[in-house]
């Protein structure tokens, strides 16, 4: 039973379709005709009481259903009129007699007037308004989307609010687009009613005289009344549905129901009511006019306008008094800007900065604006989700806004209010990354790929296929900007990890491992110490997703050392599988190794002070290492792999910090951070040069 109720509408539509082929008894037909009139009246009343068209968003579908219902009933009544000697039930007979009133010509004229009013005035007007409303709604979508993005960027709404407003805009566009098409059903229904009426009348006369044996006058009287009654029973619901359609599409700026709007807006014009009443009353005293009706209506309007105006004047006086009191309050001496900022608490709002923001020139707005087809925001959402799954850290919201200070094709990425990257995009071009040995040269504007610094060219779209044939990697402008932004965020992720984010990560861990969190924080590890450990990991591209292992290892390591760098190294060892997965490809790890003599020299360069251990390497040794690495990194670039140096755990952290000054994209790993099932392949070895060794020995 419950399943039948859930599918009742679908079942009802199927039954309506069956009305077309299944004959209905006269008694059931009477009931269904009354149901049709009642349903149409209910829909009309609803359209006048809703405050927003989207509150009745099923209306386009209802238009189709009600039209289908009337079509089935029309065919059923036509079958009864033509096949039952004009007897189609008491409802049709009663409506026919009510309109005709014994005069067939009068009944036909009244019926035609009703049909023409519906077709020419109501239906045609509703169709035109629906068409214009649909077009204007679609044209206004980009501006509305930009307004939402501006409110979101300025902090007036949050992401949920922006999502709800975008959904409403999309629903409005869908609704008015559907209404534009649904009004065609109403127009077709009105045209069909005329055709069915002609068929009933002409066909009834022919059948009545040829097969029913009726005289012309009797057939004319019987079938004309049945035809008029049938047409009227169909046109009354159709007229109400047409009116309801016009109500929905014309009330685009309503603040409440139709009754509320009419009462409020009429009562807001007492002078117009008074003036109209006086003019009508004046017409009533002119000789030859109908004095009584004009005077009654005119005096009634004038008195109503006077009373409404008096009430409005009293309310206006009260508002003016309140406004005067407010102005008097404002005229009191107000503190100057200097006085305002004497309170230190008023200065703090000026210090707020966004974690990440991106400014762009005018030409790049369509790439960001979703209403114009821009996909940058959706790609950033995907990147944020993927980064959270890979690294265990959720990138904060990125604020996008245009800037008149930039060139039309430029963009700037800022971290905590400071510029960290800048790029330039040609929207109507493609970026072709130059290969090592291109088979041909393509015409274009020479540039450098902003994310990785690869020599490139901006090429025209028609040259895209030829560039790919020559071996170039061709990228669309949106991907260039999105890749650059993503790489900037990756490289500065450790800066975005603050105390609040650490607390949130711990709270998330507490849901699954509450005992571990209670033991570790704050008994052994403070949030500040955990923040530093996590930042150390993110700085070198190590995922922090396994926060439970990180906490356990950090607690164990703090029992033997208070040096957070050494604690981080222990954590890295515990995350060996994660690090191996992060840097290993197909079971192989291509690395650069250090000669044993080099490692000894590096270890001997370690010094200790009050701040901890640091690397005090001589310039000669540093120059050798940096120079040899430059040649070895080229091998990694040729293979398209990330350069990795493999060292012992003792010197890894200090060696990595030294090399980060020269090669920020280089990773330094320790042997204990690589699992035993990985095959390590050395692409080179850093060793000491002989002359340097002799110099060192001589010294």
In short:
The protein is α/β, with parallel strands linked by helices. Helices cover 63% and strands 10% of the residues.
Tags for this model:
alpha/beta, four-stranded antiparallel β-sheet, disordered C terminus, elongated, 699 residues, four-stranded mixed β-sheet
Structural description of this entry:
This protein has 699 residues and is α/β, with parallel strands linked by helices. It is built from 27 helices and 14 strands. The strands form 4 sheets. The chain has a 4-stranded mixed beta sheet. The chain has a 4-stranded antiparallel beta sheet with strand order 6-7-5-8. Strands 13-12-9-14 form a 4-stranded parallel beta sheet. The longest helix has 52 residues, at 159-210. It is elongated. The relative contact order is 0.05. The model is unreliable at 692-699 (pLDDT under 50).
Question: How does the SSE layout of this entry go?
Answer:
Elements: H1 2-6, H2 8-18, H3 26-49, H4 59-83, H5 90-100, H6 104-154, H7 159-210, H8 216-250, H9 258-267, H10 270-284, H11 291-331, H12 337-340, E1 356-360, H13 365-368, H14 376-391, E2 398-402, E3 410-415, E4 418-424, E5 430-433, E6 445-448, E7 455-459, H15 464-469, E8 473-475, H16 477-491, H17 493-496, H18 499-510, H19 514-520, H20 527-539, H21 547-558, H22 564-574, H23 576-583, E9 588-594, H24 596-604, E10 606-609, E11 612-615, H25 619-639, E12 644-647, H26 652-660, E13 667-670, E14 679-686, H27 690-698
Parallel strand pairs: 1-2, 9-12, 9-14, 12-13
Antiparallel strand pairs: 1-3, 3-4, 5-7, 5-8, 6-7, 10-11
């Amino acid at each position: 039973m419950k399943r039948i109720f859930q599918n009742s509408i679908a079942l009802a539509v199927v039954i309506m379709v069956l009305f077309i082929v299944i004959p209905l008894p006269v008694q059931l037909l009477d009931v269904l005709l009354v149901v049709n009139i009642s349903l149409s009246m209910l829909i009309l009343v609803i359209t006048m009481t809703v405050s927003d068209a989207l509150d009745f968003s099923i209306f386009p579908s209802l238009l189709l259903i009600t039209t289908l219902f009337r079509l089935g009933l029309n065919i059923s009544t036509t079958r009864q009129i033509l096949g039952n000697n004009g007897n189609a039930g008491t409802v049709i007979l009663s409506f026919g007699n009510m309109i005709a009133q014994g005069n067939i010509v009068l009944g036909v004229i009244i019926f035609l007037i009703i049909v023409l009013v519906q077709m020419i005035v109501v239906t045609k007007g509703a169709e035109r308004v629906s068409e214009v409303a649909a077009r204007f709604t679609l044209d206004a979508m980009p501006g509305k989307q930009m307004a939402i993005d501006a409110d979101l960027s300025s902090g007036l709404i949050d992401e949920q609010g922006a999502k709800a407003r975008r959904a409403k805009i999309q629903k409005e566009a869908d609704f008015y687009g559907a209404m534009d098409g649904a009004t065609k059903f109403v127009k077709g229904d009105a045209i069909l009613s005329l055709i069915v009426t002609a068929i009933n009348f002409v066909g009834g006369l022919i059948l009545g005289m040829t097969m029913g044996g009726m005289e012309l006058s009797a057939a004319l009287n019987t079938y004309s009344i049945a035809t008029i009654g049938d047409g009227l029973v169909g046109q009354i619901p159709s007229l109400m549905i047409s009116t309801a359609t016009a109500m929905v599409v014309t009330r685009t700026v309503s603040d409440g129901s139709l009754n509320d709007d009419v009462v409020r807006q009429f009562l807001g014009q007492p002078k117009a009511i008074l003036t109209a009443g006086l003019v009508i009353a004046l017409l009533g005293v002119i000789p030859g006019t109908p004095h009584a009706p004009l005077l009654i209506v005119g005096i009634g309007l004038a008195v109503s306008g006077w009373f409404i105006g008096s009430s409005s004047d009293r309310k206006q006086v009260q508002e003016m008094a309140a406004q005067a009191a407010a102005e008097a309050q404002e005229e009191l001496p107000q503190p100057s800007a200097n006085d305002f900022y004497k309170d230190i608490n008023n200065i703090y709002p000026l210090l707020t900065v966004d974690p990440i923001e991106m400014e762009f020139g005018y030409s790049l707005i369509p790439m960001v604006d979703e209403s114009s087809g821009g996909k940058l925001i959706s790609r950033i959402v995907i990147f944020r989700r993927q980064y959270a799954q890979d690294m265990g850290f959720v990138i904060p919201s990125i604020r996008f806004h245009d800037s008149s200070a930039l060139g039309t094709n430029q963009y700037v990425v800022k971290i905590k209010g400071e510029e960290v990257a800048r790029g330039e995009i040609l929207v109507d071009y493609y970026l072709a990354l130059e290969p090592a040995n291109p088979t041909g040269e393509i015409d274009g504007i020479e540039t450098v790929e902003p994310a990785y610094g690869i020599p490139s060219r901006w090429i025209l779209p028609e040259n895209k296929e030829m560039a790919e044939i020559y071996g170039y990697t061709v990228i669309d402008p949106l991907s260039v900007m999105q890749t650059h932004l993503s790489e900037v965020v990756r490289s500065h992720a450790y800066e975005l990890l603050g105390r609040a984010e650490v607390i949130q990560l711990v709270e998330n861990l507490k849901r699954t491992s509450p005992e571990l969190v209670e033991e570790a924080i704050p008994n052994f590890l403070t949030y500040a110490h955990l923040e530093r450990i996590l930042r150390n990991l993110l700085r070198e591209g190590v995922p922090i997703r396994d926060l439970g292992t990180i906490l356990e290892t950090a607690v164990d390591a703090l029992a033997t050392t208070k040096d957070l760098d050494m604690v981080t190294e222990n954590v890295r060892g515990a995350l060996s599988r994660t690090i191996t997965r992060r840097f290993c490809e197909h079971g192989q790890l291509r690395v650069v190794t250090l000669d044993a003599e080099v490692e000894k020299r590096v270890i001997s360069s370690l010094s200790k002070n009050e701040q901890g251990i640091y690397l005090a390497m001589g310039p000669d040794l540093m120059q050798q290492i940096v120079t040899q690495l430059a040649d070895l990194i080229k091998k990694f670039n040729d293979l398209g792999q990330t350069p990795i140096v493999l060292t012992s755990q003792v010197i890894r952290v200090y060696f990595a910090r030294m090399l980060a000054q020269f090669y920020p994209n280089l990773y330094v790993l320790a042997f204990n951070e690589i699992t035993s099932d990985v095959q390590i392949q050395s692409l080179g070895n850093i060793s000491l040069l002989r002359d340097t060794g002799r110099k060192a020995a001589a010294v």
